[in-house]
């Protein structure tokens, strides 16, 4: 079990509230090449936090440490005052963390409903054999999973495509299905890896609205990696900026867009002249 902090990590947004996520002095290297160097920041409950930076800045490595895929060389990650090391995906889900990846990972031949219900697979107690032969306990669990999935389909306005094979849907709708699957277990922390990649401006606006709704209506804390700076500036409460594995800035969108170090290392120009499309 994760170890409880003797003194809970608190968020800079509210000194009386334990952070939903805290990264403490995390360093990571691969074969002598430094990917992350002494990274520390905290994310408040209910916050949308973006992580940005040039290619190779360490963003994906950081998300892999936070999601338990990588064990850092030094430092720790805290979830709501509990520390954890590298863990399997199903164990991570039981800790209240869910993640999407840049590339779609849907079951293309299954219905939208079954894809979303698959997000609850870590909670199923009936064994594989019981599922295959349809024992009462397995049927009951399947019905409960589908009921939860139906709620998310309605929440994200996907109920009209519930029975469609996921692979037949437009790309932007498939990204929303993936978001529904990540949210169906009601995670405390949702990690999004380039959620807007490959999307049109209209699709970005649509998905951004649903991400906000996940925070506002479900109380989900969200950490996302995203290359579209316009989207990041409009969607995020706070932004962490990485460059060559170092944290060079951490603040509000206004702080970041006007930070000369960030402009020099990443943005190049002030946000009103930046190429990011925004939402």
UniProtKB/TrEMBL annotation:
GO terms for cellular component: plasma membrane. Residues 21-269 form the ABC transporter domain. One of its GO terms (molecular function) is ATP hydrolysis activity. Pfam families: ABC_tran, BCA_ABC_TP_C. Keywords: ATP-binding, Nucleotide-binding, Plasmid, Transport. InterPro entries: AAA+_ATPase, ABC_AA/LPS_Transport, ABC_transporter-like_ATP-bd, BCA_ABC_TP_C, P-loop_NTPase. SMART domains: AAA (SM00382). This is ABC transporter ATP-binding protein. It comes from Azospirillum humicireducens. The lineage of its organism: Bacteria, Pseudomonadati, Pseudomonadota, Alphaproteobacteria, Rhodospirillales.
